[in-house]
UniProtKB/TrEMBL annotation:
Pfam families: DYW_deaminase, E_motif, Eplus_motif, PPR, PPR_1, PPR_2
Domain DYW, residue spans: 694-786
Keywords: Repeat
The name this protein goes by in its record: DYW domain-containing protein
Family: Belongs to the PPR family. PCMP-H subfamily.
Ranges for the PPR repeats: 83-117, 184-218, 246-280, 347-377, 378-412, 479-513
GO terms assigned for molecular function: RNA binding; zinc ion binding
DNA sequence: ATAGGGTTAG
């Protein structure tokens, strides 16, 4: 709209116009169109030359949120005989519409044109500097205020105090207060707000004490300050002593509780507030919803939602976001989704909490779709998605997303790294794990308890006991889980004595063991066949620590007894345990029967297990091997027939080995690897050397009725042997050859690995389904008990 | 002569 267009509008009323008619019409002007009608009338009659009348029209235009600022500027530019009031109006319009720099430009023009500034000019300009957080320009203004003498105006002074306080320059703010002869309650509140903002309790208390009269705003600010600095008692005391509490006072105290994680107290106070008939606004509801989210009180959240609708404040954006967060945190993803789909101006937290909400209820794919469609992903979004993948066992995706996050230029925080390290643990990706540990050190991230525990677990489950211990001794705080990772880790790495020592040390430090601790302790005993010691811990668990053993503890004991050859005792324990034994319990006994050659019991248990779980390949294989080891080929063939009928396929042995950051996979009998020729040559070399060392292949476990030579060949194609041969070629000493196997290592491979470690002077570490085997100079850390 | 300015809670 411009003046030419304005002229085309029909005059709204008769040609005669005066101030009283204008004053009567202006308040009714709601739209640019109506304003233009008045304007055209004024131009038509020449009334626009009346400076006072023109200033009234400009003010009306500037104050209307529906009129564009450029339109006001056109009016401004056409006003003849402008004055300070008109310039002030224009500058204020710019500040109000968040263009403080344009207000400052106008001020410079004002000085050039010698338009007189007045005491109203400076508060506007100081406010402009405050919005820009430009203390430099503010100081410049302060000088000019000083020269013009407007510093005696309390309004001018208060905006200056506020400006310094908002910029954090409490020295200059305080100087103004100390020197001023004209202080009103706003002056005091402004300087107080500055101290509250920087958390300076001493100076805030001093100012509050100096105030000639305490007003509610000042007391409210003090409550906020006490809350932010954790002084709940002082906040409550002040609240109780206040003669007049307003909505903000209640809201401030509720927010104190909320920020100090006293969520119940926050909710109780909110109920009290409502019972006292105090008005509720969107600000206090946000605090209360956060409390509901933390307490997972979705019902209370819903009641508050009804209240919000009843009082008609549900359309506040902040409230919508808070409700989305509350619902998704409480697991009511349906309610969250409804708001999310209908919401506008959703903030980052809403997106992030929707992603977490979907992940929490297991909808990984939906979460990923939302994540992909998200406009701005922050560290929290990435972290939520990465840890969601890890929690749902999508470990490769976890690592892939982590790489993507870094390509996106974002730095992971401690929370993200915990998930990534845990994925490394599951994939035995030691190189990446070591890289992340180095990243943590390089970037000065704090190894907190959780991160430390995760690292210990990772190193232990990758067979790096030394590194795990280094982390353990380097962290400040230890939880039960930290000790558990250590005890369990030492046990699976064959350091049983050290594991049990650490259990004593843990108790000596006053840490109370839990049921997971005893999985580690009993596991340690199992790995060394310490039957008596195992029983002692099992009993102390019940009597001393009042922990009811679960089915896994019983399974562990059955395994301990069975492996030690006490098959009868093991079976008795199964029959007397207080809960129904599961497949794993019987499976442990079957393994023991195989180890100790008890074919009668083995057949009985094996058949029971196959009946129990006809699709389990391991039990069939064990039973068939039991028959084969005693030359009962009919039995073995029958089991193989059952497997065929049930469609059970034997899981092929698979070994993984990481070389130069790449994971290589070998299956039993595999010929697919590009280096197969070199690997076969190496296997021949190994075979020759081993024969010289006196190694004889152990063909007992091969159930196929094939001749001896073929048996030996197939034995020599076991996946772990292929991996060892590859490791000898691809990994240069003294780096140990680290291999992860999906099944348990077989007798022959175990014997061969021992020989190889001596003949080639190489350390070999094999992680099988159950534990680690560290082969060094012809012996294994498991002391051949496994 | 007349009009217009600042502060607090998440």
């Amino acid at each position: 709209m411009n003046f030419i267009k304005a002229l085309n509008h029909k005059p709204a009323f008769k040609p005669s116009i005066n101030l009283s008619i204008l004053e009567a019409h202006l308040p009714k002007c709601q739209s640019p169109k109506q304003l233009n009608q008045v304007l055209s009338q004024m131009i038509f009659t020449g009334f626009i030359r009346d400076t006072f009348a023109a200033s009234r029209v400009l003010k009306c235009s500037a104050d209307s949120p529906f009129v564009h600022i450029d339109h006001s500027l056109q009016i401004f530019n056409h006003i003849e005989n402008s004055n300070g009031f008109i310039w002030n109006t224009m500058m204020r319009a710019y500040v109000q519409r968040n263009s403080p720099e344009k207000a400052i430009c106008l001020y410079k023009l004002m000085l050039d044109r010698n338009v007189g500034c007045d005491n109203y000019t400076y508060p506007i300009l100081v406010q402009a500097c405050t919005i820009r957080l430009s203390e430099f320009e503010g100081k410049e203004l302060h000088n000019q205020v000083f020269k013009t003498g407007f510093d005696s105006d309390v309004y001018v002074q208060n905006t200056l105090i506020n400006m310094y306080a908002v910029c954090g320059n409490m020295g200059d703010a305080r100087h103004l207060v100390d020197e001023s002869p004209v202080l009103d309650s706003v002056s005091w509140n402004s300087i107080l707000a500055g101290y509250v903002q920087i958390g300076d309790v001493d100076n805030a208390k001093y100012i509050y004490g100096m105030m000639p009269e305490r007003n509610t705003i000042a007391s409210n600010s003090m409550i906020v300050l006490f809350g932010r600095t954790g002084r709940l008692i002082e906040a409550l005391q002040l609240f109780n002593e206040m003669p007049e509490k307003d909505m903000v006072s209640w809201s401030a105290l509720i927010s104190c509780y909320e920020q100090n994680e006293m969520y119940e107290e926050a909710l109780v106070l909110f109920m009290k507030m409502k019972a006292n008939g105090i008005m509720v606004d969107e600000v206090v509801v946000v605090s209360v919803l956060s409390a509901c989210a933390h307490l997972s009180l979705v019902k209370t959240g819903k009641i508050i939602h009804c209240l919000v609708v009843k009082i008609g404040i549900e359309s506040y954006v902040n409230l919508q976001n808070a409700f989305i967060h509350m619902y998704s945190t409480c697991g009511d993803i349906i309610a969250a989704q409804k708001l999310f789909n209908g919401g506008c101006h959703l903030d980052q937290i809403s997106w992030n909490s929707m992603i977490s909400g979907y992940l929490k209820c297991g909808s990984v794919e939906i979460a990923k779709k939302l994540f992909d469609s998200m406009p701005n992903k922050d560290v929290v979004s990435w972290s939520a998605m990465i840890s969601g993948y890890a929690q749902h066992d999508h470990f490769s995706e976890t690592l892939a997303l982590f790489q993507e996050m870094q390509l996106d230029g974002l730095s992971p925080d401690e929370t993200t790294l915990v998930s990534v390290i845990s994925a490394c643990t599951h994939l035995a990706a030691l190189d990446l794990g070591i890289w992340i540990h180095a990243y943590i050190k390089k970037n000065g991230l704090k190894v907190n308890v959780i991160l430390g525990t995760t690292l210990i677990d990772m190193y232990m489950k990758c067979g790096c006991v030394e590194n795990a211990l280094e982390v353990f001794y380097g962290i400040e705080e230890m939880w039960v889980s930290t000790w558990n990772a250590l005890i369990l880790g030492l046990a699976i790495n064959g350091l049983v004595d050290k594991s049990l020592d650490m259990f004593s040390e843990m108790k000596r430090c006053g840490v109370v063991p839990n049921e997971i601790t005893f999985m580690g302790v009993l596991g340690a005993c199992r790995h060394m066949g310490l039957v008596d010691e195992g029983y002692r811990h099992f009993n102390s668990m019940i009597q001393e620590h009042k922990i009811e053993p679960n089915i896994k503890h019983y399974g562990c004991m059955v395994d301990l007894l069975g492996r030690a050859g006490m098959l009868k005792e093991a079976e008795e324990l199964i029959e007397t345990m207080p809960m129904a034994p599961d497949v794993a319990t019987w499976g442990a006994l079957l393994g023991a029967c195989k180890k100790h050659g008890d074919n009668k019991m083995g057949e009985r248990v094996g058949r029971k297990l196959i009946e129990f779980q006809p699709d389990h390949d391991g039990f069939h294989v064990l039973l068939s091997n039991i028959y084969a080891s005693k030359g009962n080929w009919d039995g073995a063939l029958e089991v193989r027939g059952m497997m065929m009928r049930h469609g059970v396929v034997k899981t092929p042995g698979c070994s993984m080995i990481e070389a130069k950051g790449v994971v290589h996979e070998f299956l039993a009998g595999d010929k697919a690897h590009p280096w197969m020729k070199e690997i076969e040559d190496k296997l021949d070399e190994i075979a020759k050397k081993l024969k010289m060392e006196g190694y004889a292949p152990d063909t007992n476990e091969i159930s196929l009725d094939i001749d001896q030579e073929e048996k030996e060949t197939s034995l020599f194609r076991h996946s772990e042997k292929l991996a060892i041969a590859f490791g000898l070629i691809a990994i240069s000493p003294p780096t140990p050859i680290r291999i992860m196997k999906n099944l348990r290592i077989c007798n022959d491979c175990h014997a061969a690995a021992k020989f190889i470690s001596r003949a080639f002077n190489r350390e070999i570490v094999i992680r099988d389904r159950h534990r680690f085997h560290h082969f060094k100079q012809g012996s294994c850390s498991c002391t051949d008990y496994w």
